[in-house]
Design a protein that fits this description.
The relative contact order is 0.14. About 10% of the residues lie in helices and about 35% in strands. The chain has four helices and 23 strands. Strands 4-8-7-12-6-18 form a six-stranded mixed β-sheet. Strands 15-14-13-17-16 form a five-stranded antiparallel β-sheet, with no helix packed on it. Strands 22-21-20-19-23 form a five-stranded antiparallel β-sheet, with no helix packed on it. α2 crosses α4. It is globular. The structure holds zinc ion (ZN).
């Protein structure tokens, strides 16, 4: 998948992606940051259409559906209303408040935080989400652990491709989550979005210097959200024998790894016990 930007519109091949204009915009934007959001919505809600309503009072530059398809709602050189009260420090040490004036926003369709009930994992609207689409994890700025809808691989790949195009066209200093710029107030994109892997892939950085290892255990290796057996499972199914991982750091005998997909790209990251990792 390849995108590029022409006249501040995202293009796939020779045509712009679908555009549904939002009236909820400010003045000129010189993008310095890219902010990742989730929509906290289900498959029936059309968030781009919602942003087209004046009384919504919110917008974002891009909205991504669960299948990875993108709609642009605001040109990239115009301020959209996605960040709210927020702040971030740029690479030159400048403190920016109110990131709408500095940042492109991508809204990714996802329920976000889920609550456990006798029916399974439920959304803020009371809808039930299939357990296979949920990870249990603690938010880096919140407690305790809860459920989070996983992002579809199609969404991750499309977001990487769109972010690459944005970083090629504009001088983007940093890619951040809404939770990074509004900690405590916002939880998106949350622990189901692997920001480290996302940023590395957008910047095209290889995992140079980090060892690639192979999982060797016939029963599979559990991957957890922290360095110990008391931490919740990141994925319900263990990593199968033969899975390739890149080791980033170790705490005692626990290793923080990125799990590689079939194309040997980082897929998701978590903690595994190092006794079952061997050189490939
Ligand atoms: Zn947000």
């Amino acid at each position: 998948m390849d995108f590029r930007i022409k006249n501040h519109r995202l293009r796939a091949g020779t045509s712009n992606v679908k555009f549904v204009a939002s009236p909820n915009v400010g003045g000129e934007l010189k993008p310095r940051f890219l902010v990742i959001h989730y929509t906290a919505s289900g498959p029936d809600a059309d968030i781009a259409r919602y942003f087209a309503q004046e009384n919504a009072n919110v917008s974002a530059h891009l909205v991504m559906r669960r299948d990875g398809s993108l709609t642009q709602c605001v040109p990239f050189n115009v301020v959209a209303w996605h960040a709210g009260k927020s702040q971030w420090i740029g690479t030159n040490g400048t403190r920016y408040a109110g990131l709408n004036d500095q940042a492109i926003g991508i809204e990714i369709e996802n329920w976000g935080a889920l609550n456990k009930s006798i029916d399974g994992w439920i959304t803020w609207t009371g809808a039930v989400v299939d357990g296979s689409k949920v990870i249990e994890a603690r938010h880096k700025f919140g407690t305790p652990a809860g459920g989070w809808e996983v992002f579809n691989p199609a969404q991750v790949e499309a977001a990487i491709a769109a972010a690459r195009a944005i970083c090629t066209e504009y001088a983007i200093e940093d890619i951040v989550g809404h939770d990074d710029i509004a900690p405590g107030r916002k939880s998106d994109p949350g622990p189901a979005w692997d920001m480290d892997v996302f940023k590395a892939r957008v910047r095209g950085e290889a995992d140079n210097g980090n060892a690639t290892m192979v999982v060797r255990t016939s029963s599979g290796l559990n991957i957890r959200c922290g360095p110990g057996a008391t931490f919740g499972l990141l994925r319900p199914a263990p990593l199968p024998d033969g899975t390739k991982v890149v080791v980033h750091e170790a705490q005692g005998r626990w290793c923080y790894v990125s799990v590689l997909d079939k194309a040997e790209n980082p897929d998701f990251s978590g903690w595994v016990h190092g006794d079952w990792l061997f050189e490939g």
